[in-house]
Structure formats: C-alpha cells, structure tokens
Specification:
The protein is mainly α. It is built from 14 helices and twelve strands. Strand 6 (103-104) and strand 7 form a beta hairpin. It starts with 5 loop residues before the first strand and ends in a 6-residue tail after the last helix.
C-alpha cells in the first residue's frame, strides 16, 4: 500500500479523487487524479501500487508530455554523436510526438502520468489507434520506438515495467490494415517550390524529382555513374549512416537498388547536367556530381533545410526530400500504369509487391506499350 495516497469521493465535483499529495513545509504538495467512477479510481490506485518504484523519484510525477520531451533530448544527444542516424531520429521524433495525440478512455495521452498506462491499455486502447491505416511494417516500427521510450521511462524511475514489452499484435491481411496513402504532389506545386531555390539546390532537387534516387544514393553519385550520351544513371552505391564520423558508402538499400535509371524523359535535365559537368571543369569519374565547396557529399540535413525554406517562401505545405522520389513515382504511374515491373525497377524496390503496396492506389486503367525506353519517353518533361 502507498501510505500517503488516499481515495475519496468529493460531492461538490461528483468525482472520486486519488490524492497523492504530501505535506511540505506545512502545505500539501503533489498530484490529485479525478475519476467519475469509483472503479476507475481504484484501478488507478492499483496501478500506482504496481508501478511505484522502490525509491521515489521526481520522474515518477512525469506526465507523457514530459517523458516525450526528455526522451527526445536523450535521442538528440545520441544523434549528435552519431549513435542514431538522421532518418531514425526524425522517425522517433514523429512517432513519439504522435503518441501524445492518442487517447485512453477519452483522456489525451499527453496529460496522463507515465505510470498510469498499463499493458492492457496498450493492447486494447493504444493498438486500436496505432494500427489504423498503417502497414504491418509501419506498425512494428512504431511499436519498437514506443517500446524504446518506455524503457527509458523505466530507467528514469517513472515506472517499474514497460507496458509495450508483452505486446505482440496480430498483423494479418484480415486486420483491416491498409497502407497509408501517399498524397500526390502536382507538378505546378513542385515547380513553385523549386523556383524559390538557388543553385545548386534547384538542380539537385530537379534531379531527385526526375530520377527518383533516394537521398543517400544521390549524395554519393559520381560522374562515372552518369552516362549523358546514353541518357543513363547507374546507381551502384549509397550513403549509409548520417553523422560525419559514422557515415559510410555502401550498397544501395535493396539488391534491386543497383540499377539503371533512364533520362529519356528529361531532356532539359540532361542539358543542365552537361552544363554542370563543363562548369565543374570536366571532373574525374570519381568526383561527386553534387559536391559541397570542399568536394565532399551534401549532408541530408542541409538539403532538408533548403527544401523546407523553399516551401515556406512558396507558401506551400512542407515536403520532404523523399517526397521528390514519390513525385517521380507518380509521373511514371501516370504514363505507364500497366507496367508495375518497370516502375519497380526504376525505383529500385526490393519487389513489385512493395511498389504495389506503396503506390497501388495511384494505378489506374492500363496502357499497352512494349519497350521500356519507349514507355519512359512518354513521361515527357514535366518540370
């Protein structure tokens, strides 16, 4: 039992109170939790008893909003020393902040004490919200990040157990899970954003939007990978790891990531690349196509900041560098919807199933063509 905690009914409020206050300098200090039903107050008291650490800590008083803030500070410090990559840190930031918008018994998670959330609540309240409109892989990713945050909570003394440890969701085709639909971005919006970019950022962004290369693939693209005479880009490597100390050049994300991307559909881009090659003094094959002033590769964070600033100047919603890859997918699908294999190959997906799951809702009535090059030529110059 918790000696200082009392439960009682307050007639004026018509609510039950779990009073955790203690006397400090002659005044009551601490938290009071209110419930309409006595059973709910009793459940909360039981949770307090189960999750109260042996030695009381200030962190035991944290609500979820505070936990998220403290956890993201910890993750930021790990990011700064290279233990966590840029994309992972961004996803953790998104998942943990999104968790604050969930509800349990109509109560916002953000306002709940960390020790209040039980495994039962996670299984029956949180999971119902988490799986909605998300693919199996995304659900598992969210669970992993939230499990990590609650492990941090245990370490800090907010509670004594992790409510996510025992959660094993049954994620099947019958779970009513659907892939979150990616919103199409129209060419005129893309153009409006690009018009606010200065070189070399404008050309870098156009290249991403018209080739679909992943950020890490484009970062380490060298002139030896670009065959402007045959209108082909050879994707053979990618940047892995985000910090300067831990970054390395390795194989692309998937086996099929090693691929040829054709430029038949983008004659203006080819012309600009030829001009860039001459402007750079006809560099050696091992030199980066889009280098920094010191000849290194462009950092992801720098590209993201430039793109976000351009969105603000253009008065458009924020887009990410990966959205430029989605844009490339959209123009392929608009012109060659029947050839999912070609689209998948150009994007470097591990399989056509991935392409169908991510972009299937964009595919309309099929067109009939034969040659891959002929099909790509139909895309036309859209930017």
């Amino acid at each position: 039992m918790l000696d200082n905690v009392k439960t009682y009914f307050v007639p004026s409020k018509k609510k039950w109170c779990v009073d955790e206050r203690i006397m400090v300098d002659g005044k009551r200090s601490g938290d009071m939790a209110w419930f309409i039903k006595r059973d709910d107050a009793t459940k909360y008291l039981r949770l307090l008893e189960n999750e109260k650490p042996a030695s009381s800590t200030d962190s035991f008083k944290w609500n979820m909003k505070t936990l998220v803030q403290e956890y993201l500070k910890e993750e930021k410090s790990r990011f700064d020393i290279g233990e966590v990559g840029d994309s992972v840190y961004t996803r953790v930031h998104f998942v943990c902040n999104s968790f604050l918008n969930y509800t349990i018994d109509s109560m916002p998670v953000a306002d709940l004490k960390v020790h209040y959330i039980s495994a039962t609540m996670v299984q029956f309240d949180i999971m119902q919200q988490l799986v909605k409109d998300r693919a199996k892989r995304t659900v598992q990713e969210h669970l992993n990040y939230l499990r990590g945050m609650f492990s941090f909570a245990v370490q800090k003394g907010c509670r004594i157990s992790n409510p996510f440890n025992e959660i094993k969701p049954k994620l099947t085709r019958e779970s009513n899970l659907t892939v979150k639909k990616i919103k199409k971005i129209s060419p005129h919006i893309i153009s409006a954003i690009f018009n606010e970019l200065q070189e070399p950022w404008r050309l870098m962004s156009r290249f991403a939007a018209l080739t679909g290369l992943r950020s890490g693939e484009q970062a380490v693209l060298t002139w030896g990978d670009v065959d402007l005479d045959n209108l082909t880009v050879h994707v053979t490597k990618a940047l892995k790891g985000k910090s300067k100390e831990y970054a390395k050049i390795a194989d692309p994300k998937t086996f099929n990531g090693i691929r040829r991307v054709y430029l038949d559909h983008a004659p203006e881009l080819v012309t600009e690349l030829k001009e860039l090659f001459i402007k750079q003094g006809r560099p050696a094959p091992d030199k980066y196509v889009f280098p920094t002033k010191d000849g290194s590769y462009q950092k992801r964070r720098r590209k993201r900041e430039k793109l976000q600033a351009a969105c603000n100047k253009a008065g458009q919603d924020q887009i990410t560098w990966h959205d430029l890859r989605h844009f490339y997918a959209s123009i392929l699908i608009a012109r060659i919807p029947e050839d999912i294999k070609t689209i998948s190959e150009q994007l470097g997906h591990g399989s056509t199933r991935i392409t169908e799951e991510v972009y299937g809702h964009w595919i309309d009535d099929p067109l009939k063509e034969n040659s891959t090059r002929a099909k790509l030529q139909k895309v036309g110059s859209v930017l």
